[in-house]
Protein 1
Amino acid sequence: MRSWVKVEPNEIKAVFLSFAFVFTLMSSYYILRPIRDAMSSNWTDAELSTLFTGTFIMSAAAVALYGAACSRIRIGILVPGIYALFALSFLGFYILLQSMPGFQLANKAFFIWTSIFSLFHLSVFWSFMADIFNKKQATRLFGFIASGSSVGAIAGPLLALLLAGTIGPNNLLLLSAAMLLLPMFIIIRLEGMKHTELHNEALNADGDYRQTLGKNPFSGFMLVVRSPYLLGIAVFILLYTSISTFVYFELKNLMAPLDETLRTQLWAGIDLAVNILSITTAMFATARLASRFGLVGTLGIVPLIIVAGLLMVFISPMLWVVVCLQVVRRAGDYAITRPGREMLYTVVDRESRFKAKSVIDIVVYRGGDMVTAWFFTALTQGLGLGIGAVALVGALIAGAWAGVGCLLGRFYDRNHAEKKNHVGTCE
């Protein structure tokens, strides 16, 4: 393990528990994702943009409620409670879809709520990880932990493919809800290990998980606006989600002539390819990339690859080209970009990790989805641009994304170097 992942003996239990934690979360989500994505081709660009707008509004409301919960509920109850809430919500959707089959409003509500869940469950997870592991450990271990999301994202679609025909799609909601209850036990164990096996007593006092985080439920929004560093992360996420939305809409339009069953299979196939590709990279390459090139290389490499990919779509706007781009983009995000950007939060205070991070990961992300969706609609339905021309616009956005990533990585690496020098001087 040490030769592969650079993990110390005292960290192995915590690393594998964290791996199991995110594996369970992603398995649960990826049971639901192909069902949601197959619905998108039933709607026009304008209709889907309206749903993205609804997702943004609901996300902002959810983050405000989450901020209020952070101010009033002890963290030790709040973190597992988030997953219990989502489990109950999908149980509710199961009852709704079973009692009212074919009800389009229920399908749209499911699309919106699953889109919120897709960010919330990982945002809370990585907030918790940044609170358990110190900065040095995060650089070495977050890549391997992130590979658990890839393994879960392989298991989820496989479970859906194997069970959908026997138990039916709606019953998959029950399986997903049940899986979301498992992390509650892992959370308790990891919190106990932080001050024992991991020796991270300096991160927080022993009683921190019996405390709340400030009194202002909207402080997360203010923290982002007031901090140039957090604002930079927000811009990075905004540009990232812009590219994600561009590629998603391109795929949605190219798949429109296909029937819904084939679409579901294509989306599931993309999920499978993404996570097979990303798992090896995350397990064995991310930590080495971060250690050798710092966060400048970690945060900058994927956007530059996407620039090249979008230029290829501009030259050859075909379905298989966009599918390959989607696979590379998402695999790069899971294996490299996501662990890298989560390392950025190891240098901020605890309130920023939980409150400001949720604002960036959910409100800014879904706000970027909404703005980009309408921008894409204006380009296609307003100006009449084709897939190739839209891809060229996307390449320019990806270039800006790469620039912001390099700036953030440079700040983080410089901050890390200054702290190491300061510690050496003191010693």
Note: The radius of gyration is 21 Å.
Protein 2
Amino acid sequence: MDSENVDRRSDVHHADDFDVQAFIRSVWRRRLAVVAITGVVTLAALIYSLLLTPVFTAHVTILPQIRTDGSAALFGQVMGMTGLNLGGASASHEELYARILTSDRILDAAIARRWQDGDGEVSLYDAFDIETDSKEQTGAVSSYRLKGILRTDVISFSRDKLTGYMELRVSVPRDPSLAAELANYLIAQLEEYNQSFKRTKAAEQREFIADRLVEVKADLDLQEERRTGFIKTNRSYSTSPDLLQEYNRLSREVQATTSVWVELRKQLEIAKIDENKELISLDILDPATIPVKRSSPNRKKLTLIGLILGAALSVVWVVAREQVGTGT
């Protein structure tokens, strides 16, 4: 009885074992079909890669230099105006740049421009195959769609954590020259925005301090006149406790206002200096050049995937035929 159970387990074990040699013989017998299936799938993948629209990516490498003086406050104001609420400023520069570059202000200017290509001038609507209409509502929808494409598929920013270098990548279908032109335009707009924002905020700060300085100077002159008038009418104030107390009060007002006036004078000079400083200086290490090779599709990769997929399908087909042939 025990020997019968052992024989049965042995038979089941051998039945479940995968016979590699039998499988190889089966593949060899059906080698023409295997080659045909693999070849058809590989050819289909190659044709598919040829039908895909080629995309060209232009690169701009920059090295930002963030000042550690009063410009840091303006950097925070930029983040606030762009809607960013980031925990660590050192890790957010690329997010700030990307937010500025993909803002409506810069994208609308890029959309309104005419761009050069091999056949003449072209709009971004034409470059990305977006239909436009003369109606205002349809135009707004087209603009919204185009800006969505620019934000998600065209413009990207990254930073190398080791070197600190940042890279702007602009991907455009079919037209490598447009990719390079758009990338350089966006970097120029980023620098212009920084400088314009900085000059505006610094000018506003200088004007506020200058106006406040005039007000404080008028108060100081008035307080000094009061103290001088008190001394002229009370030359022996030092012998009277009440008069001495009044003189000390007037003197404290003059001293306090003088301290404010001196501090404002310092702040005014600093504001004048900051007005001629850069908020964020962008060192463009490598401007965008016309890409020679397409960035996608990767035809070799797609063809290799087709080859692997075709081989896998052919193996599955062989196994299925063998199972049907043996009735299992």
Note: Strands lie at 55-66, 115-117, 120-122, 155-159, 166-173, 280-286.
Protein 3
Amino acid sequence: MRDDSHLPQALRGLRLPMIAAPLFIISVPELVIAQCKAGIIGSFPALNAREPEGAPPLLDAWLTQITEELDRHNQAHPDRPAAPFAVNQIVHRSNARLKRDLEICVRHKVPLWITSLGARVEVNEAAHSCGGVVLHDVINDTFARKAIAKGADGLVAVAAGAGGHAGQQSPFALVQEIRSWFDGPLALSGAIATGQSLLAARAMGADFGYVGSPFIATDEANADAGYKDMIVDSGAEDIVYSSLFTGVWGNYLRGSVEAAGMDPDNLPTADAASMDFASGSSKPKAWKTIWGAGQGIGVVKARAPVAALVDRIAEEYAAAGDALCRTFGETP
């Protein structure tokens, strides 16, 4: 496995090589701050910050809150500084807020940008204008090449088993193809919920694990109590893959689909033309109780604070590394 010397400065020196995925509705400043204080990159979708019509941009207030709280933490704890944070931008053409949100992020000098649903040169240029690093999420090698050609600095490989919008390719195949030509920052998404799976992602060639679903059941997450309980009570067999709810294929909790009165095994499909981010939402209101999750949730056995979840993964990661070193006769 490589060290982090090849990475941009903003991606170095983390407690764990881990990025917390931006979760629709769920990722709010309290969650992001807790993730960063725990030593991993926290993130949130810009579209989560929705204000009443005519009110000042909530995204502006969120970025101020996050930045000021992390600055206070770093001053009080110089020996264990917080990790940087990322903002996820949905760059689909229907996102009417994109231009405004880009301007706000540039003004706040957001250090890390995660872009989704389309690679756009002007978005990458906006990030680079304030020193930001751009990671673009992709589900195959073709999209990966397009993203880098349009100026992204790195990639998030979204493999089979990931929560929310997910691809269908094995993580082994996806990382292998990308690494055959790309040597820059690479995160892997897809059922990473333990320290062992995080170490496996690194061994395969990824620089980071991209972890989302386990954070839904944390105390700081802005998720319905029933959603958190369903994460705790579910496993890989309780995940349904469908395009119905957003027009993009993704993974959802079977129980939430059944609760909405639908048959999870006989869902109609929808195409990408049905995506509409004009109102700042990635789901029609009719589907607001359809809950996304990835296949790795079987290890989530209870609700917990973010710090406890990250501690658990860190302990497993170290133990798995030590075990491998012993297996190969090396010093940990």
Note: The radius of gyration is 19 Å.
